[in-house]
Specification:
Blueprint: H1 2-28, H2 33-63
Length: 77
Amino acid sequence: MSDGMSRAVFTLLLPATLAMSVALACTAWPERLWLGVPLMLSAGTGLAYAVSRLMILGVRIETSGPPKANHDSVRDG
């Protein structure tokens, strides 16, 4: 299940990350776009992958703990 969630988050993050990567490459290296765009596209892809894995890792940690007490069922006598 978490692999599917990770792929979905990666797929949703990828277009925005790639667009920001190209914009950053055009701003930072306007005279060397042939070098900046491929570098930033690969960095953006790696960043989207890392963020998607970290988000799913956080979901796993949050949901894998012991069950929480239900305070609604406790009555003050």
